[in-house]
Amino acid sequence: MMRKYYIAGNWKMHKTVSESVALAKELAKELGPCGERVMVAPAFTALSAVAEALKGTNIVLGAQNMGPDLQGAHTGEVSPLMLKDLGVVAVILGHSERRHSYLETDALINKKVLLALAQGLEPILCVGETLEEREAGKLEAVVGTQVREGLKGVAASDLARVTIAYEPVWAIGTGKTATPEDADAVHAYIRVVLESLYGKPAAKAMCIQYGGSVKPDNAAELMAKPNIDGALVGGAALKAETFGPIVKFRS
Ligand code: PEP
Questions:
Q1: Site to substitute for ligand 1 among 232, 238, 247, most atoms within 8 A of C-beta
Q2: Which residue of 37, 204, 216, 237 has the fewest C-beta atoms within 10 A of its own C-beta?
């Protein structure tokens, strides 16, 4: 059977509602009924309008973050109930910008992962080391801890709805990509951690995306690696001319 890849675009804090709708429509036209699973995550403010623009397409709607509670006195937070209400299917959690700029901890991210799953959303759990951690030989310890702590309490029966995105912090938005070999080695290590938690078949079946300066000209060689099952794309997801060719990396 041909492998199906999961390619997600994180639009971060970019685009007004009308700009977001325009990109969503361009992508729908450009991608058509493509064989990969495609997700886009616009800003919260554009979710509703993008949901409308994506109706009848195969592109899945995602959010870039989510609050750790269902409702209540949590000023500034957005609950999974609100996301579901808009047609959101997937949610990016623990992105390195959330971990580093907003000091999100593994415990907080784990709370969000469990809540997303309980609410029927599909979390993408982001993990990755900084350059300092990599150079200090701590890559496996850091990534292993983020995977273990992020998945704490996740039932084996829910694992298939979780995606892991390996995003080395030093490769995000910097133009530096991990070599396909280096990325694949970390993905393989993540599978070892998953195997210790959930057994071999579940670890093998898990979707692990790579993220960090994925572009049209490096997507195919990354996707060719046995342990890389998709991509989480930032900068290059902001234009149909660059996101389209990444999704269509086979052609
Ligand atoms: C990201 O933010 O998840 C990301 C990988 O960004 P970029 O593609 O711009 O490096």
A1: 232
A2: 204
List of residues 6+ apart from 175 with CB closer than 8 A: 213
Q: Domain-by-domain residue ranges, the chain?
A: 31-241
Q: What is the rounded distance in angstroms from the CA atom of residue 213 to the CA atom of residue 73?
A: 37
Ligand 1: atom nearest CA of 165 is 3
Residue 95 is among the residues annotated as catalytic for this protein: yes
pLDDT tens by residue, 172-208: 888 888 899 999 999 999 999 999 999 999 999 999 9
Contacts of 173 (CB under 8 A, 6+ apart): 213, 234, 235
Report the atom number in ligand 1 closest to the C-alpha of 235: 9
pLDDT digits (tens, 9 = 90+) for 121-141: 999 999 999 999 999 999 999
User: Residue 132: phi, psi to the nearest 5?
Assistant: -60, -45
Residue 213: its pLDDT value, please?
92
Output the pTM of the full model: 0.97
Looking at domain 31-241, its CATH superfamily turns out to be: Aldolase class I (3.20.20.70)
Q: Count Cα neighbours of 247 within 13 Å in the Cβ-side half-sphere.
A: 27
